[in-house]
Amino acid sequence: MAKPLVAFYWCASCGGCEEAVVDLAEDILNVADAVEFRLWPVAMDFKYKDIEAMPDKSIAVSCINGAIRTEEQEYLAKLLRQKSQLVVAFGSCAHLGGIPGLANVSNRAEIFETAYKLTPSTVNPEGIYPKTVTETPYGKLKLPEFFNTVKTLDQTVDVDYYIPGCAPPPDLILKAITAILENNLPPKGSVIASEKALCETCPRNESKPDKLVIKDIKRISMVKADPEKCFLAEGILCMGPATRGGCGERCINANMPCRGCFGPTKQVKDMGARFLSALASIIDIDDEEEIKKVADSVPDPIGLFYMYSLPSSILKRKKGG
Ligand code: SF4
Ligand code: SF4
């Protein structure tokens, strides 16, 4: 019997999602046995023209990681959508925008200025910036357009399923692959992870007092966190109450607070706003000066509350950019 054809593609991301596939360890051999790869640029040399020549919907599933930042990424996402029966947003950046999505606090002009002029290691007195077309004596050189705004995968193409996480844990990847291979899929649009908030399965939840109140906010880098106690109860910001569970509490077990890479639970529309409102309800201070002091103790609120989700949030990006 012909094996199902599979594509993996890497957009704006760090490459961790590709490594997460390798983290399947020996299980990757079973996956490699069960499917036939048709595109996986990080591991195998396929050409875009080979994909363009395939009949529509001939690929069983395309797993796309990374946010959409450039014209080339947008083109490949649309091409794979056309050629695939299923498209899976693989990892936080494809799902929510991820860390690359934090660039939406800036715009293309500012990013180019920083990257190609202002960094201490750059020497560029003529202010030459990348262009989509450059005339040379040998012909035109083309680069894909760098968009002003970072988008999630589902802001670009229709997405069937989401595997969350930065990067997705191997057990979740295997669960998703098995569900696809056995045609035992949840409803379209599902996030393949827990429906509960991370706090509900967190081993530190029991140490959380019934009425949670804090008087100040401590930065994890400035304190020695008690490995048994709930971070929030200690005044250390932890996104667990607003984050979907299913990651195996990876950060918590390493004595680091959750930063929200699994994204919001189904009921939460905007995880940064949800966490802010949860935080406001537990800060027990009346004095305005003191409240300002606590607010000022979070130096980068967007970077913290929307670390993985800015493009998918209500804010989406800095306005006027
Ligand atoms: S706030 Fe963080 S540490 Fe506390 S129970 Fe929730 S996930 Fe665990
Ligand atoms: S604890 Fe939070 S940030 Fe860490 S892996 Fe889990 S969901 Fe992601």
Describe this structure in words.
This is Oxidoreductase. Pfam families: Oxidored_q6 (PF01058). By secondary structure, this protein is an alpha/beta fold. The protein folds into three domains: 5-99 and 150-181, NADH:ubiquinone oxidoreductase-like, 20kDa subunit (Rossmann fold, 3-Layer(aba) Sandwich); 106-147, no CATH class; 198-312, no CATH class. 30% of the residues lie in helices and 14% in strands. The chain contains twelve helices and nine strands. The strands form three sheets. Strands 2-1-3-5-9 form a five-stranded parallel β-sheet, with helices on both faces. Strands 4-8 form a two-stranded antiparallel sheet. Strand 6 (133-136) and strand 7 form a beta hairpin. The longest helix is centred in the N-terminal third of the chain and has 13 residues, at 71-83.
